[in-house]
# Entry
Amino acid sequence: MGGISAGAGAWRPLSGPSHQLALEILLDGPLSRAELARRVELSAGSLTRLTKPMLESGLLVEVPGGPADPKVGRPSQPLDIVPTSHHFVGVKVTGDAALGVLTTLRAEVIATEERPLPNHSPETVADVVVDLARSMGEGQPEVTGLGISVGGHVSSTGDVLRGDFLAWEDVPFQRLVAERIDAQVVVANDVTAVTEAIHWFGAGRGLSRFCLLTIGAGIGYGLVVHDKLVDTTESGLGLIGHFQLDPDGPLCERGHRGCASVLLTTEAITSQVGEALGRQIGYDECLDLAKNGEPAARRVVGSAGHALGRLVAAASNFTMPEAVIIGGEGVQLATVAQDELQAGLQSDRHPSAMPPPIVLQDPSFTQWARGAAVIAIQTFVLGR
# Structure
């Protein structure tokens, strides 16, 4: 029977070498037994003992096509994860809606769905998230877990200490959702969740050190160093949004002049262009007008692109990443104002410094919901 459930066998995190084996195969598989034994430092006998129950449960499968084993003279059979052995629901909660995805164990998106938020009451939002999760699990194999991401400051226990777009303070959101559904629930900051999705299953896979900048309703920053997310109690405070990029720029609500929040958010850009044109305007239209040379839009978007370049330079100078990844619903700014971005980047970098590789992400909200699913996948695989 399909649906959301924490019934027998639904959520049994692996432990010790077993979870390390599963993680290696999940992220880099298929892998030969010899390679697995080398990576996890296990004997052939121990490897066989640990992988046998995972094969019997359907989590792992033997796949053809491995190189010949010189000891026995026949092809080896690498081990791989069965992505559809577990399914996860990820939900991104915005100020207006709950956006959901159903994914496999490798975070491949199977389905998407959305629900509007009638109001910002924590109980109402919890009801909407649960209704969405149940709908996405209907008719599917049993869903292993539910991940939820929220903009703002989220504790390690899933309490939303401050929800930027929901006007929440000290809301035990993970508990509220868990009380309404028979499933394992995990709640995290939205930028943290997207950073982990990029780290495990996206452009950051295989990189020891990268940073993520997100542009949209807010400005976000995620950092991976030594192949591990840098996560602190201050990760969800939106600190980078108040990094100064233009000493002559406008003031933000906290009195900071020319910070990222008044130059790079979608609202900052649309409000400036709208004021110049004397009408309300959407973000996509702003970018289209700038591409077509409309003077006011070109000026505002160009200034924002230059500011973004300076932000990329600051991130590169402080963390020296192998790549700077730019995401969020406002990411197309980097394409429309590419020349200005490069000028801003070069203005704050040493002439001898190599420009950091810049990778642009899909601007759709599906990526945020997929990030929420990934935090549930990580909790399942790592048992944390």
Summary: Residues 87-196+367-382 form a domain with the Nucleotidyltransferase; domain 5 fold (CATH 3.30.420.40).
